């Protein structure tokens, strides 16, 4: 007999799950409830769409065959989960029954405490609809301010700048991408972005918002400076969407609490993606979510397999022409190898402890990044590779081979 699999949220985690289920032998009838008009697109590429470097049509993650695996209720918001009756109630009154339920509701922006309710022009950058709206608003001499100099903020700022907004980034920390880069790397990145037309105000944040006729017109910063502003984009971190699960009585902490097989404490109810939490860890990158999806697909099909494993997930910035790659930890007390070429806007730092690579920060040249992430993950002994390590796998191995021959 067919079994009803219901998924709430039509984002990237759901796309990965459907990909993992696709082509496998199963008797599932799958329904996906998604509150966006667009389903299962590659959110990672939104900044490229905003920058005009990619088109929305190329963001589809499913393809016709995989999309056929499920019935999509697009533009529909799930408002209540009834675990007793095994059904989900949606805005508008639709009820959908399930045998197995996956919650994949993603996250929302962690908004700073600003007194700005009812003021238009204050937005997040999370969806294709946000991207379309920003493109429709764009005009020369309009001012956009992005709050947050992390990965998402910088990508949003780059896209807005390419759309013609005069764009400024505000960042509370004194250097950009402070979670992934050290001061020198952050400053190098800033200089490169400034050459591309972005402006920065670091070590400060918004004190108050000015408006006229209900629309934002400007900002006062904590530094006392006033900035004109027609569009304020908040990229101030993410908060997992746990409300729906918590409302049903499922255990929630920062995210919806699941074990390493994506199971909540209620049988046949799972959570996956940015809304989930495993041990103390929540997720904000696609790579671990893809792994979660593979584990959950096996769980749903009652197949055996490895559970989800925590690991170091590298970060990349996707601003065309600017290479950024960061993996592992940048521990100042460990051994360091640097490569600095300010003229070419390159800064590379490798961090080594006990002959193991533990961290890499690459700005302006990410050659070797994936390899470094593997070395970090596998805790490989790099003693023989050390002399060429900074120049990537091929050079490092060639130098190691030459040294071996000479010995
Ligand atoms: C602009 C941008 C750039 C990014 N760049 C990168 C990158 O370079 N690399 C990287 O690894 N990650 C990147 N990310 C993060 C990545 O997109 C997310 O980690 C990933 O999309 C998370 O997948 P998810 O399915 O958990 O959440 P989402 O993809 O956000 O999907 C959740 C979906 O659930 C819907 N939903 C929520 N509540 C309900 C409800 N009650 N009823 C119905 N639907 C609901 C949401 O509207 C959303 O459509 C980026 C994110 C953004 C926004």
Strand ordering within the main sheet: 3-2-1-7-19
For the sheet with most strands, the description reads:
5 strands, parallel
Name of the CATH class of the largest domain: Alpha Beta
**Which blocks of ≥5 consecutive residues have pLDDT under 50?**
none
Describe this structure in words.
- The chain is an alpha/beta fold and 407 residues long.
- It folds into three domains: 3-108 and 238-300, 3-Layer(bba) Sandwich (FAD/NAD(P)-binding domain); 122-234, 3-Layer(bba) Sandwich (FAD/NAD(P)-binding domain), CATH 3.50.50.60; 321-406, 2-Layer Sandwich (Enolase-like, domain 1), CATH 3.30.390.
- The protein is 24% helix and 30% strand.
- The protein contains ten helices and 25 strands.
- It has a five-stranded parallel sheet with strand order 3-2-1-7-19, with no helix packed on it.
- Strand 24 and strand 25 (356-363) form a beta hairpin.
- The longest helix is centred in the C-terminal third of the chain and has 15 residues, at 286-300.
- The chain is globular, with a radius of gyration of 23 Å.
- The mean pLDDT is 94.
- Flavin-adenine dinucleotide binds at residues 8-14, 33-36, 43-44, 46-47, 77-78, 104-106, 125-126, 152, 155, 241, 244, 273-274, 284-287, 289, 318.
Draw up the topology in text.
Layout: E1 3-8, H1 12-21, E2 28-34, H2 46-50, H3 63-67, E3 70-74, E4 78-82, E5 87-90, E6 95-97, E7 100-103, E8 107-109, E9 122-124, H4 128-137, E10 143-147, H5 151-162, E11 166-171, H6 183-195, E12 199-202, E13 206-212, E14 215-221, E15 226-228, E16 231-234, E17 238-240, H7 243-247, E18 256-258, E19 269-271, E20 276-278, H8 286-300, E21 315-319, E22 322-328, E23 335-341, E24 346-353, E25 356-363, H9 369-378, H10 393-406
Parallel strand pairs: 1-2, 1-7, 2-3, 7-19, 9-16, 10-11, 10-16, 11-12, 18-20
Antiparallel strand pairs: 4-5, 5-6, 8-17, 13-14, 14-15, 21-22, 22-25, 23-24, 24-25
Residues 8-14, 33-36, 43-44, 46-47, 77-78, 104-106, 125-126, 152, 155, 241, 244, 273-274, 284-287, 289, 318 line the site of flavin-adenine dinucleotide.
């Amino acid at each position: 007999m067919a079994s009803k699999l219901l998924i709430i949220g039509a984002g990237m985690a759901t796309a990965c799950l459907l990909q993992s289920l696709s082509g496998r032998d199963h008797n599932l009838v799958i329904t996906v409830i998604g509150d966006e008009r667009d389903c299962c697109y590659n959110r990672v590429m939104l900044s490229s769409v905003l920058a005009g470097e990619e088109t929305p049509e190329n963001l589809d993650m499913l393809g016709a065959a995989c999309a056929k695996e499920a019935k999509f209720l697009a533009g529909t918001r799930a408002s209540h989960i009834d675990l007793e009756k095994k059904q989900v109630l949606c805005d508008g009154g639709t009820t959908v029954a399930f045998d197995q339920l996956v919650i994949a509701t993603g996250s929302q922006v962690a908004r700073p405490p600003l007194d700005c309710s009812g003021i238009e022009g204050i937005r997040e950058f999370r969806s294709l609809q946000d991207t379309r709206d920003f493109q429709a608003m764009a005009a020369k001499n309009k001012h956009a301010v992005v709050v947050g100099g992390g990965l998402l903020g910088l990508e949003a700022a780059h896209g807005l700048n390419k759309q013609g907004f005069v764009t400024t980034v505000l960042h509370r920390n004194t250097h950009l991408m402070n979670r992934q880069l050290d001061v020198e790397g952050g400053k190098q990145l800033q200089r490169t972005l400034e050459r591309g037309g972005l402006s920065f105000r670091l070590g400060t944040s918004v004190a108050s918002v000015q408006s006229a006729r209900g629309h934002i017109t400007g900002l006062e910063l904590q530094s006392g400076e006033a900035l004109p502003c027609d569009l304020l984009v908040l990229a101030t971190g993410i908060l997992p969407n746990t409300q729906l699960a918590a409302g049903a009585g499922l255990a929630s902490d920062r995210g919806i609490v699941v074990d390493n097989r994506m199971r909540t404490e209620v049988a046949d109810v799972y959570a996956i993606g940015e809304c989930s939490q495993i041990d103390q860890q929540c997720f904000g990158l696609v790579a671990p979510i893809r792994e979660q999806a593979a584990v959950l697909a096996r769980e749903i099909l009652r197949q055996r397999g490895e559970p989800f494993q925590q690991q170091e997930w590298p970060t990349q910035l996707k601003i065309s022409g600017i290479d950024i790659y960061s993996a592992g930890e940048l521990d100042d007390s460990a051994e360091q190898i640097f490569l600095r070429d300010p003229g070419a806007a390159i800064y590379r730092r490798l961090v080594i402890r006990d002959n193991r690579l533990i961290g890499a920060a690459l700005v302006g040249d990410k050659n070797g990044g994936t390899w470094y992430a593997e070395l970090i993950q596998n805790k490989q002994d790099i003693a023989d590779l050390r002399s060429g390590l900074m120049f990537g796998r091929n050079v490092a191995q060639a130098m190691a081979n030459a040294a071996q021959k000479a010995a």
